[in-house]
Design goal:
This protein is mainly alpha-helical and 391 residues long. The protein has 2 domains: 254 residues, no CATH class; 104 residues, abc type-2 transporter like fold. It is built from 13 helices and 4 strands. It has a 4-stranded mixed beta sheet, with helices on both faces. It starts with a helix and ends in a 6-residue tail after the last helix.
Amino acid sequence: MRHLIHNISKWTTSLYRVWRREFRLVFTDAGVVIFFFLLPTLYPLVYTLIYNPEIVRDIPVAVVDNCRTTSSREFTRMVDATEAIKIIGYASTLNEARQWHAQKACYGILEIPEDYGKNIGRGEQSSVIFYSDMSLLIRYRGFLSAMTDLSLATGTKIRQKLYNSDSQPINSSSIILGDTTQGFASFVIPGILVLIIQQSLILGIAMLGGGANERRLMNRGIDPLAVKAPATATIIGKALCYFTIYIPLVIYILYFVPIFFNLPNIGNIVDYLLFIVPFLFSSIFLGMIFQRAVTERESSMLIVVFSSVVFLFLSGLTWPRYAMSKLWIWIGNCIPATWGVEGFIRINSNGATLEQNTLPYLMLWLLTCCYFIIVLLSELLTKVKTPYNHS
């Protein structure tokens, strides 16, 4: 029993020495300080500022009215009354409207055909033509939403007149959950925040690994700053160091940034902080795995450059995961940010509880265990090959 207590005490002391040593390495390395502190502090602000205001309003549109009737003018006024579109004037021909577009005076052209008023008067189906500038998809999205809503409202109004009724045959209403403003920032930023945490962790940990490799190269395979400790104490000590550093950063990124910019923030902070615990540990251990491939400090930049876009797509933020092939879904399942984005958005934007995120939560703990085992095996092999200095 005494021997067991002595071993536990020795292991705990080794873990503390690793934890303290790693803290010293983090705060004495300017590059790691930038990636651990400056990057996760400024990136959320920069990203959110880029996407504010969240939706585009009063996009200039030119009208080519070939009908010139009361109904066509009424339709034009309804278009101008939408939030997204602002009518800047009437062009006499389509070519003139195209010239306005070439001069960037407008980003859309509404063409009303000659028979529009006649068809509407007869109760027949009519159509209008809308040309949209595709240089920015957010403008196209605004045009599409506005014209779709307007066509439905116009159709309902015409049917009411035909049946001499003041009531709609079917009452419809829209209740938007999560992204209540339908804004791009409210849609994408909560997921981006989770990706920033993962990528900054991987980048900083990989840079620390590159620094350790450089010290070994300069000292005949010995890292003079290494601590002689069991493999488990080394791994857990490092992980606890990074975890301790990132707790206040996570609170700032996931709680205060959404408040600053009025983003969705209806979840319980306790729920998503508990949810983030396995996400942080799985990201830390994934960073330690990437660390093994870094031979120089600068090489860590290549890992982030090549992995950031891949992780963004695999998370499902820019392309739905159900539309991916089974191979990419399986690869995405192995990335902590994939489950982190899904679970955090559910809690933060939709008000889900931790119990309602059982699958993402358990998957993050599973990834944590798997990555820990991989790092442990790698650490054991490294300890066999590499001698320690007795610092």
